Amino acid sequence: MKYLLFFYCFLIATLPVFAQKSSGRETILLDKDWQFYKGSIHKNTDTAALSWKEMNIPHTWNNIDMQQDTTYYEGDSWYKKIIYLGDEYKDKRLFLRFSGVGNIADIYVNGRFIGEHQGGYSAFCFEITDAVHLGKPNVIMVKANNQIRPDVIPINNHLFANYGGIYRKVHLIVTGELNISTLDYASPGVYISQDNVSKNSADISVKVELENKYDDPQKVDVKAILDNEKGAFVQSSAIESEVSPQGITTVEIPIPVLHPHLWNGREDPYLYSVKVEITQGDKLLDEVTQPLGIRSFHIEPGKGFYLNEKPYRLYGVCRHQDWWGYGNALTGSMQRVDMGMIDDIGATSVRFAHYQQADIIYFLCDSLGILAWAEIPFVNAWSGKEGPNAKQQLTELIKQNYNHPSIFVWGLHNEVYCKYPTDYPARLTYELNDLAKTLDSYRYTVSTTGYGKMHLPMNLMADIQAMNRYYGWYEGKISDMEKWVDGLEKDYPDYNVVLSEYGAGGNIDQQAYEPERPADVIKGQFFPEEYETELHVEEWPVIEKHPYIAASYVWNMFDFCVPGGWSRGGVLNRNLKGLVTFDRKIKKDAFYWYKANWSKEPVIHIAGRRLQKRMQRENRIEVFSNLQNVKLWLNGRLQPPPVQGTNDKDFIWPRCKFRLC
Q1: Annotated active-site residue in 415, 530, 532, 538
Q2: To bridge 318 with a disulfide, which of 45, 59, 351, 633 should be the other Cys (CB 3.0-4.6 Å)?
């Protein structure tokens, strides 16, 4: 087999918005010229004789079978890349940082085992300095395995697809022998906290973790530089520190800011940047830049969410990351398409279900001003063996994303149940909450139930109790939503409550003039789009008038894959509750309903346009708009004024006379 000896060096950011480029650190993207082998490789296998395929990162091997077949491949697959490192890397530290490998990753360099990472959604970083050969080709090999295990969350594929592969970016990070740590759970090694935030001042604290691989302690200057959104200098603070060659040296730098420009959600998502420089005399040893959005937030029970001491309604969508035909192996432009649609609909918040998402996603939330709920995939079931891995993934989630101003809450579990508060998952949730509050004391924690009851063994262990309510779909009637909210307001007026999921399935290829809830939403094959629309048109006005619900999230922004033969609504392996189709090409009527209600841009949309075969002459026409004096012409004739539907964004002409063919 011929080795690939080309080494592509792209100096881009470790994290995609705030570039890090200095004489002290290089960040090199390793996305091209990988080789892939689907299957196991045993100890004495001649790897040169195997049929390797050329490919680039991101990649998954499940983008077809999980989405289109009733069975799919679970097991080992291998990736290989050859890189050349010259003598210029002498006296440097070298790290491989993987942003996401599903689900278990074993890393080898030149045949030496470097380490294993368990969990398919968080980043991980290993040092490879002692394993590389300068002046020679170096072989990176990654064994990825997507088999479900009871000790790694999620422990099944019942609710969403766990695709296998190196499906997010891979970087080679090069630093000097004294550097800002890359090995604290693959975090940036810089943690920015804020306290006492107001329009007059804010207390900013920058914690920096330093490593020293010299033989002796080293005296360095640690400087935190605050720049404004345009990159202009605002102020700086510096501390002299002696960095020990043993363990981690932690330095904290206070930056009091007077009259800060506040990060104010969609209205004004203003971002400073904090650049941490490590210098020794005139020599720059290392630097890392992170975003800073200065803001405060809290929930007032019964009144809702407050941003910078003002009421700020949180409403939006949940998001699964996979695309039709691509699985979870998305490019940066595809990630931007998703967040662009979430921005376009006017969402003020997004729940990232049910796992840590790509770095770029959180940066986009920061820059768009969309408040984010980030969570771990402790979802749907428990085994009694997943505790250590759940804690690992929660630690990774928090440490890797600590500096994002958009994140306001850490999610601990979703629809995990038990009989008694002493059962394993309840005790684990308690421990996860304690861990989250230890790592990050100023953000909220949340746990999610699929029931509408407050007092259940898995509830009330976090700051916020979230509830998934599918009235009019899995249970009850659409009108039951209001009864549920009224009951909670009466019985639990001082509780922090979030509506974490609501919605219905809708197939754009299935239409009905007078839709009814499918008789069987579990095995049924007819999910008309009109029923999905009707449910949202009736339920959103209920949510809108109840600020007691601190945040609400439509399930889901996009249709997504549920593998292994899920068959509902006439499409195999597809959850059809999205507001947008799986391929991102068609926005359903319900999308425009929410855009009319949430967006400040002019919206006007005629619903039901895909219902083209109408048997009756007299038809009901419904229009969603945030404009006034909406008028309708049918076949050139101006129709009488509309009647108001469920709110002032819902215009209905109940008796329009069509021409019959």
Answers
A1: 415
A2: 351
